[in-house]
Protein 1
Amino acid sequence: DSVGFAIVGLGGYALNQMMPRFDQSERCHVAAIVSGNPDKLRQVGDAYGLPQDARLSYDAFDRIASDKRIDAVYVVLPTGLHAEWVIRAFAAGKHVLCEKPMALSSADCERMTAAGKRANRKLMIAYRSHFEPFNIEAMRLMSQKAVGDIRLMRTEQSYRMGPTTPSENWRTSRALAGGGPLEDYGLYGLQSALYLTGEMPESVSATTFRPANDPRFAEIFAHVASQMRFPSGAVAQLVTSYDSAGINFAQVRGTQGALIMDSATGYSGQKMRIEGPNARDFTPGDPTVQFARQLDHFADAVRDGATIRTPGEMGLRDLRLIEAIYASAKDGRTVKLAPDGRMLG
Ligand code: NAD
């Protein structure tokens, strides 16, 4: 009993990464598409063999409520639109897979989880690294103390954005992308710092930078650097930038060696090794299975009631930490955190 998805937003990630992977999923299929662009509806609808009444404009979206072919909605729109569309999908009685980051504020995340509970429907955040063999193996290695006790963690997620403006590229618009690189690429570093240490930070300090007179950074930051302290005494340093040469790196240094992931969380091309007395290279599987495995995990939750590994509560937790990072940078002080990521002042 395959889960039928309505895909909302036919942008780069939906068209080039996720939609082609439905073929590899055992329990999910594309049942409908929703877009503001009639040409895209026609082209993509033809490519996926969808009937005319499964090609919807945004205005027609609410019709899915009575459409039995559609079990779930995949929200893959610019981030500033996630909250509105997730809540609309719940109002239509559907389960929701929402792209990361969940939203641009913890308040929106709370509205989204509340709407899911009211509708008694599932909410999963598309944190694909939780379904990717290298990152799953890294979590297992760290929980088994493969580098001893964790002391230092470092992550770097950067690329150099071409010339653009907020009106041309939603990723540079504050209303659609928040502060910029941290919510987008840097979120992979933040996530891995938590799932590799297995801890929540007890405090955070951070700094942001925005160059003058660069239209790319009229509204967003160019870099965000943050430092987190964990209850065990481990410390993580996370940097992310839209204005430096490409990297996607994570390193965990323990008392007996280091785990190095370079690249750490891409669509493919992961590399992972341990340095030190237990030096070893790892190739635990094909990273490209992450997309279909993520879909099948969602189906397991919808059909069999499996517990979601990356629920709305995780997306909310991460938005709280992102808000703490910005609060620290703004005020130039260390922010103390509760175990659920709330700021303690
Ligand atoms: P994109 O720019 O390629 O596509 C965005 C789509 O939204 C476009 O089709 C655009 O037409 C549409 N859209 C609708 N309303 C819009 C508006 N008001 N302003 C601008 N565009 C509007 O973006 P993308 O890279 O596909 O990202 C979409 C979402 O997916 C984001 O939340 C992003 O963070 C997430 N994403 C996740 C991954 C991942 O690896 N999990 C990778 C890329 C993007």
Protein 2
Amino acid sequence: MTTDNSGDVRLSGIGKTYGSFTAVHPLDLTVPQGSFFALLGASGCGKTTTLRMIAGLEEPSSGTVHLGDQDVTRLPPYKRPVNTVFQSYALFPHLDIFENVAFGLRRRGIKSVKKQVEDMLDLVQLGEQARKKPHQLSGGQQQRVAVARALINHPKVLLLDEPLGALDLKLRRQMQLELKRIQTEVGITFIHVTHDQEEAMTMADTVAVMNAGRVEQLGSPSDLYENPQTTFVANFLGTSNLIEAEVDSKSGDRIILKAGGGKLTLPEARCSAPATAGGKVLVGVRPEKISLTHADDAGDIPENRNRISGRIADSSFIGVSTQYVVDSPVCPEFEVYAQNIDRDPRLVPGAEVVLHWNPAHTFGLDAAQD
Ligand code: ATP
């Protein structure tokens, strides 16, 4: 199979400084043609600046932007085969919704636009609103017009800067799936900026997690969730319990660690910290991977599981599962999400418990990082 990479977006050493402030440290990134790529991070981490450098709206302080073989670093935005959907709607106020969406087609001299525009409006659930003016629509509806307008010309790359931010949660979810479906159908590269980890995980094939102007980690949503490499990623994507542990020894492809009075096992492949004997490692495990057993039944727990002891501090019943907070000497406020199948009635605040999990679900982080 040959791979057509003529539409890959390639950033090489691209960086941006404002005076003495570095918004984006020089970074290298390749977004494969046809992928749905998310730049994810908290406000101010540099994701919008990165997107704007791809669009040509921000001049990089260093580095180059390539689209396939073409160096587009010095091209003005309108000469790049990209289109952007902004946080602000930027619709033409004097044109109705139909004409706003039709605009790009008409500018290219296409006469029969009706079917394409109607299909696009149906896609964003605005078929009934075609003859209204932008000011007669809600903010969320206006944002959907902006998405339709940007897509109508089938750009090679669609850049989306928090495009769903104005929508209510239900519509936002619908639009996430809609955008994903559209992207799959048209095969255009989507580069999506968001601070919402769930949104990035739902939509993107690949996510770049940004922090303080740097890409902390790049990977598929499941890889980032299962194998975070830094405490920032571990905590930004979902909840992680982190236990301070000390490397004791190695046994085959497993690292044995001391935590409190006990031992924990960590697959070496899932440890991003240097694991030298006596070194410190932060051992992580996700709340939903943990089982909770009353201390009186601790003898029933299979030998090969990681385990720590604690006392239930709090529990909240949330339907399908119960969320427990467990205080333990090695990790205060350990979070556990347990499915409510055969729930043990003794598991109430104050109960002594053993938390245990399959070592395969453990990850190791560098305790020395900030
Ligand atoms: P948000 O989600 O809030 O839009 P972001 O991650 O997209 O945040 P950027 O907009 O890329 O962040 O900004 C990165 C940093 O660069 C921020 O600290 C911001 O204040 C700063 N910055 C952005 N534009 C300028 C500018 N024109 N002059 C000075 N500093 C700027």
